[in-house]
Amino acid sequence: MNMKKIQALCVAALMCSTVLFGCQSTASSPAASQSTKAPDSATSTSAPDKSNANSTATSSNEDDKWNDMTDEELYELAKQEGGEITIYSISSRMPRTCEAFMEAYPELKAVATDFDQNEAISKIEIEAKSNNINADVLQCKDSAGEIYYNFFPAGYLENYYPTDICSKIDPELLKYGMPFYAGLNFWYYNTQLHESAPVDNWWKIIEKDENGNNKYNLVFENPSSNDTYMALYCHMILMSDEMAQAYEKAYGKPLEYTYDASQTPGVPENNAGYEFLYRLSQCKLTFIGDGDDIVEAVHGAGSTGIDTLGFCSAGKITNRDDNGWNIAWVDNLDPFVAVMNTNYLYVVKGCDNPAGARLFIRFLMGGTDGNGPGFKPFTKEGNWSIRSDYTNPNNPFGVNDINTIPCDIEGIYDFFLDAKDFWDYWLSKSPAK
User: Fold this and answer.
1) What digits encode the pLDDT tens for the residues 281-325?
2) What is the pTM of this model?
3) What's the CATH architecture for 185-336+415-428?
4) What CATH code is assigned to 3-182+341-397?
């Protein structure tokens, strides 16, 4: 077992022992702490657990007081703090929200820095450890639980759950932090070659012909280099029964298990998710790290005649209109089409502008009614608001209108590294590589 996994399990064990002394909510109890209490939803009966992993992330009435503050109250406090709010973001669209924010609150300044995921969270950690905190707000993903299990217990971040806004959000999505919007990853197909999606089941994506060749040219980013993609396959492992049923639905016979679980520690036998991951690893695969290049490869299949499926962010559909590419989403697959990859918003613990950070988060979420200008830069096709009172007009359907599933960070955390090792091992043994 590698050191990273040992450390992860130690953290999890510590939190499991500590959480016994926390308060219980009506929702399922997360194993890691939230730094402020999630409000009771006006439209639901449950809220995230308020249990705490250690004293650095303990919720208090002092923390919770922020949740019911109005924009006006936060604005007055933000002006007293100094008025320059720094946002670390994984989106290049955030500066547009900063501009709109400064128009709405002329006595404040908001500055966003665009990082990739690893850079953003690394800077937060380094600044906290060196006691040189520069950021006030962090916007990023948490597909595999790094933030939920590590950053909150370490005291790097706080959650902010504004009561009025959270009443419009599914409590299940509040479990791991304050959700901003949901992104999906889809398979893309070529609309010159197909009038509609050529596959409706995950197992059909990895079909081979009688000669053992892929039916489809598969283009995507190596899951080893992207936790969000690896998390998708971990959800298949969690949903082993559903994956087995999907196979039988597609082929009319039970799934045959062909992987050797003894080759990689921690992997059970006869799990349909691992079987899919194994069979995928043995296909001929083309790894490309950039989503635009992936959908371009799908588009190019129209001229080469090589039937190609590409997997990447749903937001890359904009190339269809911007570049005239012949691409479309595969938006229905058994047993699920996509995992909801939630972007989260956090307040940096110990920041200079705690009120300003919360005011910016409210603004970014669209304010009380969801229609404020802060969220507008994020309404491109392929991004989904998680608010029940707002629908992104650029999307052809709502995120709950297709068979998506929420990300289960707790469920996949314990075996995430095992699944990654399994993938890497069998990929290295693939005769098709």
Assistant:
1) 999 999 999 999 999 999 999 999 999 999 999 999 999 999 999
2) 0.85
3) 3-Layer(aba) Sandwich (3.40)
4) 3.40.190.10
